[in-house]
Amino acid sequence: MPIENVTLEVKEFLKLVENEEKMVAMLAPSFPVIFNYPEIIGMLKRLGFDKVVEVSRGAEETNKQLLALTKLHPDRRYITSPCPTVVRLIRKKYSHLEQYLSPIDSPMSAIAKLVARKYPKYKKVFIGPCILKKMEAKEDHPKLNILVLTYKELQDIFKEKNISAKITDKLSRFDVVARDTRLYPISGGLSQSSGVINKFTDPEYDVISGPALVVKVLEAFLNKPELKILDILNCDGGCINGPGIVSKDPLLLRRQKIINYWNKR
């Protein structure tokens, strides 16, 4: 069954498969919303990936960098920057707040740097729920040479290649793993996994998700000098509700799937 409305990224990926290029799949932490673990790893490797790594491992570096900044500059304020939609909104509409964006790696860029060291000369393919990750890869990190696919695009590719879960996929495992940062895709996942909730008092940090709240909080940010860390994601409930996810599951069930997977650690 041919893929409808094939994107440039899908075309590039299919060419990589055709040429049997060495590839590393960088799987975003929201994957349990629509894919079963560990079957998804086996499916990716049968698709053509040599390695499959958890982007949650990159989130560990994101957390370390953020906490290091708060220790080095305890009086500064930070708006977290893993969400490319929020980053672009601030650059375009709230440029006066750009100085507060945390100057750290997103989980995607952090895991890409790790992959570049561990698996040099392998093509890095990020797979996740966010369309704007494509812009982040091309505009913010062109030197990392990341190809970005959404979950929806991956599902279409699986259908075209007639790849579905097999019993042998249950033996598959990640080549690079993470632990507590598997909570990252839910709203507040950064704050909880990094320990921000323990390091700062309630007035000193805030957790926000959803377009309406994002705008409201950004517009009030300068009027809240006590707010040191703004943990912010554009999609309601976090990345589990990204536009690259096709699911009929309600938000609470999606969240529970992430927590269930996190509990496997």
General shape: globular
- Count of runs of 4 or more consecutive helical residues: 11
CA-atom Rg in angstroms = 18 Å
How many structural domains does the protein architecture include?
1
Strand content: 5-15%
Write down the oligomeric state.
single chain
Helix content: 40-55%
Structural class: alpha/beta
The termini sit apart by 37 Å
Series of secondary-structure elements, N-terminal to C-terminal: HEHEHEHHEHEHHHEHEH
Per DSSP E runs of 2 or more residues, the count of β-strands stands at 7
Low-confidence stretches: none
How do the strands of the widest beta sheet line up side by side? 2-1-4-5
Task: Explain the overall architecture.
The chain is α/β, with parallel strands linked by helices and 265 residues long. It has one domain (8-263). It has helices at 8-18, 39-47, 55-72, 84-93, 107-118, 133-140, 151-160, 189-194, 196-199, 211-220, 251-263, and strands spanning 23-27, 51-54, 78-79, 123-128, 146-150, 205-209, 229-233. A 4-stranded parallel beta sheet has the order 2-1-4-5, with helices on both faces. The chain has a 3-stranded parallel beta sheet with strand order 3-7-6, covered by helices on one side. The mean pLDDT is 97.
